[in-house]
Design goal:
This protein has 500 residues and is α/β, with parallel strands linked by helices. Helix content is 23%, strand content 17%. Helix 10 packs across helix 11. The longest helix is centred in the middle third of the chain and has 19 residues. It is globular, with a radius of gyration of 22 Å. The chain starts with a helix and ends in an 8-residue tail after the last helix.
Amino acid sequence: MRLSLVRTRRYLVSATVGATLAAGVLLPGGSAAAQPAEPTVDGPLLSYLVITAPSGHQVRQAEDAVVRSGGAVWVSYPEIGVLVARSTHPGFAARLRAGHAVEMVGASRTTAITMNADDPTVVAPSAAPTSVSAGQDPLEPLQWDMRQIRADQAHSVALGSRQVVVGVLDSGIDAAHPDLADAVDPSLSASCVDGGRVDTSPASWAPTTSGHGTHVAGTIAAARNGVGIVGVAPGVRLAAVKVVDDNGFIYGESAVCGFVWAAHHHFTVTNNSYFVDPWLYNCPDDPDQAAISVAVRRAIAFARRNGVLNVAAAGNFNDDLAHKAVDTFSPDDQPTALTRPITNECLSLPTEAPGVLAVSAVGALGVKASYSSYGDGVVAVTAPGGDRFQSPGPGQSTGVLSTLPGGRWGTLTGTSMASPHVVGVLALIASAHPHASPAALTELLEQQAADPIICPTVYDIDQDGAPDATCTGSASDNGFYGHGLVDALDAVHSTHHAHG
């Protein structure tokens, strides 16, 4: 099946390799208001993010205002002052904004469209190399990415602690996969795709139309068990938090739910290989986008206050996030996107939210991947994501090999694949420093577990004679690579001199 560029860019998987097909409980602290019958259908049923003060009294006033304005409260997060409302009334948002009970309100989507799932590049166990060293899993020789960050050497020192919980905010995880069965913790897993309401049933957070989350999970924590591949931190636990709906969209209410769930369950770190739909960049001068931005950033800040470090992929647009000029991709839930000028005030979420570590991608030769977005002062570190212009050697895929639903393995390419490498390295650091705060983990990563890469003099990755991007910054912190390529061996040897 031909690759859907729209869908894969949303997931932050590169267009060079496919994704995959795979076979109303509230959050703790959340509340649901009494809901009236659905209003008369006079327009499309839309979901809205409503912002108010984070107090019980203000939230109750906002809930009442939602009902008076012709809507229904779907779920409420009083701890961060965010409500998810639904309405078919075309004037719902304007009515609500005209009152005094809410600070902001914005539609979290425009018109949903059906997207096709993409086929994976599958690697069968029978395709394993014959030259497997003692102690290696069968497909490990194909994992050039693990050798690039010295994860194979780190495993002789440490595999990670079961006390460390990594939240995979994605499309679900196949918990029956032989490389993941021992890592996934069902008691910490949930789905958020029902408009931001939590469902903890195992079927709800299992993959349905995408194996993207299963692939990400394998990079982080696939077991060293004599089967398939090995992840960066095979000894840690995984929590599947499904935020991607069956059409491949990650709307703001699902992202908010995922971060609040992570906060209440005190995850150590989360991986976020996506951007929040439908806007690649959310601009403060648009009321819908502004509300999405505030809601998501409040949820991220709440998670961080509860000890969660959040990591996100930088994106696959080869955009300079430090010098934004135009968005030609949004809204992505419409058949035709707009072309609009933007500024640096317009944020890609969760990547550019305060406190989130943004990750760029390199290929097998350690050079910025052709698709990877970048930005001086935006990118924290870099990691393997694969690139069709950088071959790891004869007979090897330029993509990243990991787990797929149904007990399979396959390769994908993108900043989606880079981010979980960083999360795995952070999980190793957290295993060695169990009391380290998000700030301390960040400092340990950037100062002790990242190998600096200097800017190239000229970046012409496709060798057509024209520069493909411009790298700015110092040798130790620049737009292409941040503080450098993450190093798992340095992570397990890191010393706790970080502040916080």
